[in-house]
Amino acid sequence: GAVVSQHPSRVICKSGTSVKIECRSLDFQATTMFWYRQFPKQSLMLMATSNEGSKATYEQGVEKDKFLINHASLTLSTLTVTSAHPEDSSFYICSAAVGAPGYGYTFGSGTRLTVV
Amino acid sequence: GENVEQHPSTLSVQEGDSAVIKCTYSDSASNYFPWYKQELGKRPQLIIDIRSNVGEKKDQRIAVTLNKTAKHFSLHITETQPEDSAVYFCAASSDQFYFGTGTSLTVIP
């Protein structure tokens, strides 16, 4: 089946630094990827939708300059948390659309970010 | 945009009993409704899904029903087992994907 590989699984960084999270579709082309953020015991909150070759669409309230998304190829999307602060500590997870929009989705394994 | 509501937020059942989780959505364009099971710190795992042209779908102990007119859909788990304990999320999707708020299910042995 369709697999999305997400790295790193865990990262600890200092305040003010930037962290890049990668999601790769291993055996299919992911035209569209979704990035979510999840706080403990809460639901997954859609941050942005990225389409290969175009700018990401951010959800209301999500700072596009802070959460940089790049979807440069059909198999790779990256999320960069810039100038990270402790409040950015969270579980970040990507999801790729498999086939046509609304057909199905597969998730990466998630990244636990801790900013100290 | 889409607004997905999910109830209850927590649910405890005795082993062997049934569990029902309900979701409502707002966008009539949504046409795909998956349910996910998520264990702590792990990715959501798809357990069952239903499309808008179907009213009910069953897979062993799990079933999902969809009422397009009322814009609600439900997850039914029968003969619950302790390993069913997890957080369950519904979602609604057209070209984007929105999750419900989650239900923490505890199955008491």
Describe the structure.
- The complex is a heterodimer of chains A (116) and B (109).
- Chain A is mainly beta.
- Chain A has no helices and eleven strands.
- In chain A, strands 2, 4, 5, 6, 9, 10 and 11 form a seven-stranded mixed beta sheet that branches. In chain A, strands 1-3-8-7 form a four-stranded antiparallel beta sheet, with no helix packed on it.
- In chain A, 37% of the residues are buried.
- Chain B has 109 residues and is mostly beta strands.
- In chain B, a hairpin with a 3-residue loop joins strand 9 and strand 10.
- The chains are: A mainly beta (116), B mainly beta (109).
- The interface between A and B is medium-sized, with 23 and 24 residues.
Summary keywords:
heterodimer; A: 116 residues; mainly beta; four-stranded antiparallel β-sheet; 0% helix; globular; B: 109 residues; five-stranded antiparallel β-sheet
Short description:
The complex is a heterodimer of chains A (116) and B (109). Helices cover 0% and strands 53% of the residues of chain A.
Question: What is the topological layout?
Answer:
The complex is a heterodimer of chains A (116) and B (109).
Chain A: E1 4-7, E2 10-13, E3 19-25, E4 32-38, E5 44-51, E6 57-58, E7 67-73, E8 76-81, E9 90-97, E10 105-107, E11 111-115
Parallel strand pairs in A: 2-11
Antiparallel strand pairs in A: 1-3, 3-8, 4-5, 4-9, 5-6, 7-8, 9-10, 9-11
Chain B: E1 5-7, E2 10-14, E3 19-24, E4 32-38, E5 45-51, E6 56-59, E7 62-67, E8 72-77, E9 86-93, E10 97-99, E11 103-108
Parallel strand pairs in B: 2-11
Antiparallel strand pairs in B: 1-3, 3-8, 4-5, 4-9, 6-7, 7-8, 9-10, 9-11
